[in-house]
Design brief:
Number of helices: 17
Oligomer: single chain
Strand content: 5-15%
Structural class: mainly alpha
Bound molecules: zinc ion
Distance between the termini: 35 Å
Radius of gyration: 21 Å
Amino acid sequence: MAPTAQKVKLIGSEFDQDIEFIDKSHKLDDGEHDISDERKSESNIDLAKYEAMKFTPRIRWPDLIVQVTLHLVTIYGIYLILIGEVMFFTIVFVFATIYTSGLGITAGVHRLWSHRSYRATLPLRILLAILFTVTGQRDIYTWALDHRVHHKYTETVADPHDVRRGFWFAHVGWLVLTPHPAVENRRAALKKTSVDLIDDPVVRYQKLFFIPLFLLLNVLIPVGIPMYFWGETLKNSFVVSFVTRFTVTLNIAFSVNSFAHLYGNKPYDRFIKPAENPMVSLAALGEGWHNYHHVFPWDYRTSELGRLNFSTKVIDAFARIGWAYDLKAATTTMIVKRSNRNGDGTYGDVEQSEPVNIFK
Ligand SMILES: [Zn+2]
Ligand SMILES: [Zn+2]
């Protein structure tokens, strides 16, 4: 039986918006699990063989040195802020940049490119690509590909940041160690099925010009603005507006892979590690509702309504002006069914998710 999809027109006072509510409850009725169902279709990898393999990762020294340097300079940046050395406007600018550029990760490389949970017009894709590049977190293609591998093989040896290897491995260790052969195998396999990414010219050009774009958007402009507009010193601007901002943003993103994969309740599926973590959601613009997200990764909201989720509000705002469209969301029936079946019993203190007007 095919998934049922229902287009619901949400009528607001000033605009109409279509959201496609999708119900795949039949899979639950059949006793199938979404994630294991996907894995079954992947017949070209023997995960058990890879799980049994003896593997000792090596340190990738250049990456380790970069991470250690970034974090040491960040400690110095925080010290400069605490002793009052840094101008107030610079601190406000850094804070605002962290949270504006963060949308390039949440609404951009995550919900749009990795999960295709909605579609975006060219101007919105360009805007999200620029914001994502400001965060400096590699190119869209590499990030989205790794994220797809993470979702498809969560908590297996093929998961790039497999949380079974511990908090620190999931947080940052995976970026400074050589990947497990199973991860490399799946990265190569998903490259073949992720042609949609490279078909997008925005993704292609951002990848092609990543280094000059990184230097311009993550270094030169953030360092230049505080110096030019309010006379911040080069040293302070470089340390706080480049290194500290960059490292803080990295750690917020890392927290989704570490904290939100270890700490929190599991209203939708108690058999997986991803959990509902309000603190991560607060820091990461709504990305900490990770139990929900791993159960319904194709839902543009990454959480039920009523949850703190700034990125969803932003996507909704772009939907109002027609820049975001084909928003996909799970039906309440499907969510409740899944919670009753697999949840840890904490489901219930959330609002109804459809079909209410989410824009009022
Ligand atoms: Zn995850
Ligand atoms: Zn995801």
